Amino acid sequence: MRLSRILIVVGWLTLLLGCGAMVRDADSLNSANAKGGMVKQKDVVYIQRKGVDKKRTSLDIYHHEDTNQLRPIIVYIHGGGWGIGDKSNAMRFKPGWAIRNGWILVSINYRLSPDVMHPEHARDAAAAVAWVFEHAEEFGGDAKQIAVMGHSAGAHLAAIVACDETLLGEYGMTTDQVAAVVLLDGAGYNLPDRMGSLPARGGATRMFKAAFGDDPELWIAASPTLQALPGDQLAPLFAIHADGRKIAQSQTVGLVKAWAATGARAEIHHAPNKTHSTLNRRFGIRTDKETMRVEVFLESVFD
């Protein structure tokens, strides 16, 4: 098991399909606290699963001191090739970004491969969204305005949770209760296509196999591009792909087309000066172009 996890991590690092730099900057968070009236609730357990470390099914909430006014919520799902990562990764700028826009940020953990494979990561993400929906008012959140956002593998999870009705349905929600979807440089939206393009061996192959196995039927079920169907009631989508990542570009284009075919709003944005990593690490900086584009999108969706 240990060797398997190491091999997956190596593959992720090699192909930059993970969560990017794992930034933990307490000084930046403290500064945001002081300037923006931020409160952080850490390691809140959103579901208890037998035999699973509670931290793995926990979330962090960054909200305003004043909880009387109900505010939109962004549920953020970290990347890491479905096999590594944590809800604290790349949180240097994101909490302050949410607060200064009058929003709330919730960053979630979920179970990782190779301990689990699809749909378990997505089931955890759906359970977290449902917990946020149920408890929103306790931290000043508006349950009617919940956006899901993710980077890399987290982008895949955000998309599949927002379009596969069985995932949220397990926890008493429907996909039309998601207000918006924001995706940062995912490259696994169409799994049959992605798995078919992988080499016979290598880090990426091990990573995808650990998360999605060998069953083509499971690949279809795990693919947002194939699960977003005409007639579905889906949230507005804004999907970004970084520069120089042809696979992310093609996978994002395919997803946006499928999403739009349902009748939902779907937009794509190319980040010409960003890598897979810097798109995530710099997100939330006030002058960052991609951050500003997402702000405009979310402002058009939130009341």
Task: Explain how this protein is built.
The protein is an alpha/beta fold and 303 residues long. The chain has one domain (2-264, 274-301): Rossmann fold. 42% of the residues lie in helices and 18% in strands. It is built from 13 helices and 8 strands. It has helices at 2-15, 26-36, 94-100, 120-135, 153-163, 165-169, 191-197, 203-212, 216-221, 224-227, 246-261, 276-281, 289-301, and strands at residues 38-45, 58-64, 71-77, 104-108, 141-151, 180-184, 237-242, 266-271. Strands 1-2-4-3-5-6-7-8 form an 8-stranded mixed sheet, sandwiched between helices. The longest helix is centred in the middle third of the chain and has 16 residues, at 120-135. The relative contact order is 0.15. The model is unreliable at 6-35 (pLDDT under 50).
What is the element layout, followed by pairings?
Elements: H1 2-15, H2 26-36, E1 38-45, E2 58-64, E3 71-77, H3 94-100, E4 104-108, H4 120-135, E5 141-151, H5 153-163, H6 165-169, E6 180-184, H7 191-197, H8 203-212, H9 216-221, H10 224-227, E7 237-242, H11 246-261, E8 266-271, H12 276-281, H13 289-301
Parallel strand pairs: 3-4, 3-5, 5-6, 6-7, 7-8
Antiparallel strand pairs: 1-2, 2-4
At the fourth level of CATH, the homologous superfamily is Alpha/Beta hydrolase fold, catalytic domain
Radius of gyration: 18 Å
Which of globular, elongated, flat, extended, rod-shaped describes the shape? globular
Overall structural domain count: 1
Termini gap: 47 Å
Task: Write a brief caption for the model.
The chain is α/β, with parallel strands linked by helices and 303 residues long.
